[in-house]
Amino acid sequence: MTSTPLKGADRTAVGPLADGTGTAKSVRPSRARRRSRSAPYWFLVPTLVLFAAFTLVPIGYAIWLSLHKVKVKGIGLGKGAREEVWNGFGNYTAVLQDSEFGHSVLRAFGYGLIVIPTMLGLALIFALMLDTPKARSAPFARLAIFLPYAVPGIIAALMWGFLYLPTVSPFYYLLDKFGLPQPDLFNGGNLYLSFANIAVWGGTGFNMIVIYTALRAIPQEIYEAARIDGASNLKIALRIKIPIVMPSLVLTFFFSVIATLQVFTEPMALKPLTNNLQSTWSPLMAIYDSAFLKSDIYGASATAVVLALATFVLSFTLLRISDRYTREDRA
C-alpha cells in the first residue's frame, strides 16, 4: 500500500507538532498569528498620520511656496490682478544676496558664542557639585536651578526686559543710590549680553538635569576605587566624570546650537522696549518680518528653507566630527 503525499494547505505536522489530542497542527501561520505580528505597526499609524499632517505637509508647502512668486498685473487691483507664477530658484538667489539676512546670521552666531559656553559650563559645574557626596539639600538645589526652565520664554523675556529698563528696574535704583555707573543694556554690544543672560538663566537648568542624570548612571564602584588610589574629588571629576558624560555634553551642545540659530523669543519680546533693535536682528525675526510685515510669504519660505538646510548641515557636520573623535578615543 502506497501513501499519497500531502499537497499545499493539506499538509499537516505530525509527531512533535501534534497537540495532546492527537490532532495535527497546520504549518501555515494562522490568521490570528499574522494579526499579532502586524499589530505593532497599526499602533504607529496615528503617529505617522500626525507627523505627515503637521510636519511633512508644512515642509512640502513651504518648499512649494519658495519656488513661486506673485506676478502683479497693472496697478494690482481687482480680481485676477495678482497671479502666482513659477519663479524657480529666484527667491533663493535673493536670500543669498540679502546682506541684512547675512547680518542676522552673524548676530545669531555672536549671540551663540556667548550663550553656549556660558550655559554649558554652568550646567556642568552645577551637575558636578550636586553629584558630590557632601552635597547638601541636593533636591532643593536641583529644583531651584531647574525652575527657570519651567518659566515660558516670553514671560522670562518680558520679566528681564523690565528689569533692564532704567525707569522701573530696582537694579538701576540701587546703582543710582550708590553712585555707580548705569549701563545701557539696550544699546550696542550690550544687547548681546542682555539676550544671553535671558537664555543662560532659562536654559542652564535643563542642561544641568541632562548632565546630572548621566552622572548618576555611573557606577559608584568606580569612584570608590579612585578614592582608594588617593584621587581627590577634583581629579575624579576631571578624569572620570567629565570623560564619561561627554556624550551628554555633545548632545546638549547640539541642542544649544540649534536653539541659537532659532533665537526669536528674546529679541522679539524686547523689541517694543527699545528703538535700537532691528526687526531683522535674528534669522527668524527676518523671516517673520518678510512674511507678516512685508507680506512676502514666498521670500520668507525660501529664507526658512535656507535656514533649515544650514541648521541641518551644521548639526550633521558637528555630529560627524564628534563621532569621529569619540571613536578615536575608544580605539
Task: Please provide a brief summary of the model.
The chain is mainly alpha-helical and 331 residues long.
Could you characterize what this model shows?
The chain contains 13 helices and two strands, in the order αββαααααααααααα. The relative contact order is 0.10. The chain has 331 residues and is mainly α. It is 67% helix and 3% strand. The protein has a two-stranded antiparallel sheet. It has helices spanning 31-66, 90-96, 99-130, 138-150, 153-164, 170-177, 190-216, 220-228, 233-244, 246-261, 265-270, 283-293, 297-330, and strands at residues 68-72, 82-86.
Indicate the topology.
Elements: H1 31-66, E1 68-72, E2 82-86, H2 90-96, H3 99-130, H4 138-150, H5 153-164, H6 170-177, H7 190-216, H8 220-228, H9 233-244, H10 246-261, H11 265-270, H12 283-293, H13 297-330
Antiparallel strand pairs: 1-2
Helix pairs in contact: 1-13, 2-13, 3-7, 3-10, 4-7, 5-7, 10-13, 12-13
Please supply descriptive tags for the structure shown above.
331 residues, mainly alpha, two-stranded antiparallel ribbon, 3% strand, globular
Q: How many β strands by DSSP?
A: 2
In spatial order, strands of the major sheet run 1-2
Q: Compute the average pLDDT.
A: 86
- Helix and strand content put the structural class at mainly alpha
Percentage of residues assigned to helices: 55-70%
What string, H for helix and E for strand, traces the elements in order?
HEEHHHHHHHHHHHH
- Report the biggest beta sheet as strand number plus sense, adding barrel if it closes: 2 strands, antiparallel
Distance between the termini: 70 Å
Assign an overall shape: globular
